[in-house]
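Board notes, transcribed. Complex of a protein with pyridoxal-5'-phosphate.
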Amino acid sequence: MPGYELIGAEEQAEVDDIFKNGGVLFRHSFDHLRQDRWKVRDFEREFAKSVGMSYALAVTSGTAALRVALAVLDLQPGDEVITQSFTFVATVEAIIESGAIPVCAEIDGTLNMDPKSLKSLITPKTRAVIAVHMLGTPARLFEIDDICREKKIALIEDAAWGCGGSLDGRPLGTWGRMGTYSFDFAKTMTTGEGGMIVFQNEADYKAAAAWHDHGHENNPSVPRWEDTRASSGFNFRMTEMQGAVGLAQLKKLSHVVAMQRKNRDAMWAAIQNLPGIIPREVPVGSHETADALVFSVSDNATARQCRDALLAQGLSTKILPEAVTWHFAGTWTHMSELVDSHGGDLTKAFGPSRTRLERAVSLPVVVKMDETVPARLRTALAKVLK
Ligand SMILES: Cc1ncc(COP(=O)(O)O)c(C=O)c1O
């Protein structure tokens, strides 16, 4: 969560560097004005290096990152893309926008995609899987990746919450054919709005770079107005100001994740022996971003009582149990494409996921944690969990 907690002099200096040196805010061209300042380009290079990949493309948001990644796959009407029932609406919106049919798998104890459910939903029309690392905990990537390889289906990781995390030493976002990130204001690192895609192969990178920029190939041998075109496309270009902020935030990412993990551990230590508290399952080898501390209790009534008790102590919850409507496919009756693909009535869909989410409580984790928080958490939750 806390990229925004640490915005300060470093971000300001990167932005000032643009304004003191030509003030070019566009990521391409204007070479005679920009005095060799290329903030988006530098941000892409540094981000790619930080996750050990060769190709990264900065875009305007995490939603745009998903849309551009799907554009690379050249989906056709009737193609299906499977994601999970617990995610943010953006994941499903990007599938719908790309003209494909959205299908949501059940979640398991990790609150991420259940590989068994994924397997059962694959049809000859399945073209891609989007696995989401919700709230910074890795999905079961070993199993999901195996399934996608066996069935020759593209794996995209929605690492909106996974930036800075890893599984088995491999950064989240780099397991799939493509990985997407969000830098919106609530994410571990932020550019206000913004996103990134990383790619396993150059051809996908080139297709995405062109599509996010009206099909421009950015051929270095001709001026931009004479540029060659790779495809039709759209405009999801990041601005130099976002790139500048991203460069400064990236340098803080490992500190942010380390602090979140430390604070999450202190919070958990204070409450872990309360009766009936069950920790979220975490795949072996996970390095979570610890964006939130998530646990389950016996039922929805108890989860809601936990929230009320926390509020009384001046503490809050995050998404679970109160704001699940934006993050649970079973409530997205406004998405006719999803309703149709799940039998016409979402209120009857995703029973196992619903049961898991109703019992879950998620606590926000911040970098600059007030040191009284763990004890206050304990006091609040001990009133409910007796
Ligand atoms: C799982 C997930 N995917 C995608 C997004 C979209 O990111 P953005 O807000 O940058 O468009 C979000 C945003 O919260 C998210 O949680």
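The chain has two domains: 2-250, 253-384. Residues 253-384 form a domain with the Aspartate Aminotransferase, domain 1 fold (CATH 3.90.1150.10).
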